[in-house]
Amino acid sequence: MIEYLPRSKQHAELHLTQFGIEECIPGHFFGPAVRNHYLLHYVLSGEGVFEVGGSRYRLRKGQGFLIFPGVVTYYQADTANPWSYCWVGFNGTSAELLLKQAGLTKSSPIFLYDRDDMIYQYLQLMNESRGFHKARETRLTGLLYLLLSLLVEFGPVASPELKGTRTEIYVEEVKDFIEMNYPQKITIEDIAQFIGLNRSYLCSLFKQRMQISIQDYLIRYRINKACEMMGNAELSIADISRSVGYNDALLFSKMFKKVKGSAPKHYRAEIQAQIQNDSKNSIQQIEEEHLFYNGFVP
């Protein structure tokens, strides 16, 4: 069983290109050849060999191999005990990073997953998704994420070269959490618990990477959001304060002045004056253009 899928415009970060399950005949092989997408094979039973970059791997049930785009590979079923396997082909901007998190690289393309049959179950669910019409592509992408999450969760401990990558992931998770939750009364402890790291360790990673503490980043993010609201005359300073996570107006004023150098009311007055000035200039420009195009050049 094999199914090929069209190019995804909705899920550019990760999307399936094909998937399938096959019981190979003895000695069945493919290659040497290259692929234009990532192709992950998982052995369900039997044995076979996978060759890439001068290395030869003999694989059995519970093991798998990853083919990288543009890399020459060869694989063959055993003649006495041929393997059956399932596979998923995929691409996307997030694919390489997810695979690195799972410990899969060009120099280390083999993985082991012998805990249960969840990978096979996900392939079956992909096949059963034909009953979905409007949401099938989204469902398939979700199942691909679930499959890769198994390899990430139960893969090898991150190697030293991935330390920087993991730090970037944690930092982005902090920034995303703040972006989604800054209107709420959140603490650094809340962020650390969400990401699953020790508070002190996370703070150290973030400051090392961003040259600013998480607390200061949260404050600056909230104040910058408040500044974006200052041009809306329908919102009072108290409304803006509550909208960015400060129920205490005095604390908001204190933090605002610390970041922007002036009190919220003074900053707003400057913003509104600038808006009025820009509006006058715009009206004057329109009037001058009207005169020009009607032959009344001053």
Automatic annotation (TrEMBL):
Q: Which organism is it from?
A: Paenibacillus sonchi
Residues of the HTH araC/xylS-type domain: 172-270
Q: Does the keyword Transcription regulation apply?
A: yes
Q: Which residues form a coiled coil?
A: none
Any one Gene Ontology molecular-function term assigned to this protein's record: DNA-binding transcription factor activity
What's the protein called, per UniProt? AraC family transcriptional regulator
Assigned keywords, A-Z? DNA-binding, Transcription, Transcription regulation
The lineage is: Bacteria, Bacillati, Bacillota, Bacilli, Bacillales
Q: Which Gene3D superfamilies match?
A: Homeodomain-like, Regulatory protein AraC
